[in-house]
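Input record, target 12 of the design panel.
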C-alpha cells in the first residue's frame, strides 16, 4: 500500500494555482505534466489525485528534473509522482506503463505555437501516452485551453469538467 501524501499545498504562484484549480482533477486520475520545471504544479496535482492517482512529470532539462526530484521526494516516495527527462516530442511510455487520463503544459514552446513542427510531433506522442478519452490542456486560455489531439474529436470551446 502506498504511503499517503502529506495534506499540504505546494508552494504555487497565483498563476500556477489558477491553472491547477482549472484542471478537471479527481482522486485516482493519472496525469502527465509536460515541461514540469522545478515541479510545484506536479506536486500539487499529485496531492489532489493521490494516493491512488499518479503524476508523470517530464521536462527536457536535466536541471529541472533534478529540482523536481528533490522537491518532490515525498510524493515520489509515496508512489504518486514519477519524474523523467524527456522532451514532449520524444515522449514514450515505458513498456507496460498504463496510459494517462489527462495531460497539461504551461509555457511549453512545442505546444504554444512557437515551434509548430515540434508541436505536431509532441501532440502525436502525447496522444499515444493518453487513454482514448485523454485530454490535453495548455495555458493561454482563461487560464487553460484544450488542444485537439491527432485522431480525436476537436474539443468543445471552453470545455471543462469539474
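The sequence produced for target 12 reads:
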Amino acid at each position: 500500500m502506498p504511503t499517503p501524501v502529506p495534506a499540504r499545498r505546494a508552494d504555487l504562484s497565483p498563476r500556477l494555482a489558477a491553472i491547477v484549480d482549472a484542471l478537471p482533477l479527481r482522486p485516482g486520475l493519472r496525469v502527465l505534466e509536460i515541461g514540469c520545471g522545478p515541479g510545484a504544479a506536479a506536486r500539487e496535482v499529485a496531492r489532489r489525485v493521490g494516493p491512488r492517482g499518479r503524476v508523470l512529470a517530464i521536462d527536457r532539462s536535466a536541471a529541472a528534473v533534478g529540482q523536481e526530484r528533490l522537491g518532490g521526494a515525498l510524493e515520489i516516495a509515496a508512489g504518486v509522482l514519477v519524474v523523467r527527462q524527456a522532451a514532449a516530442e520524444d515522449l514514450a511510455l515505458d513498456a507496460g506503463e498504463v496510459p494517462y487520463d489527462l495531460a497539461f503544459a504551461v509555457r511549453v514552446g512545442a505546444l504554444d505555437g512557437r515551434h509548430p513542427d515540434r508541436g505536431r510531433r509532441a501532440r502525436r506522442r502525447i496522444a499515444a501516452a493518453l487513454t482514448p478519452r485523454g485530454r490535453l490542456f495548455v495555458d493561454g486560455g482563461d487560464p487553460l485551453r484544450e488542444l485537439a489531439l491527432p485522431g480525436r474529436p476537436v474539443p468543445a470551446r471552453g470545455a471543462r469538467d469539474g
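The two ends are 28 Å apart (CA to CA).
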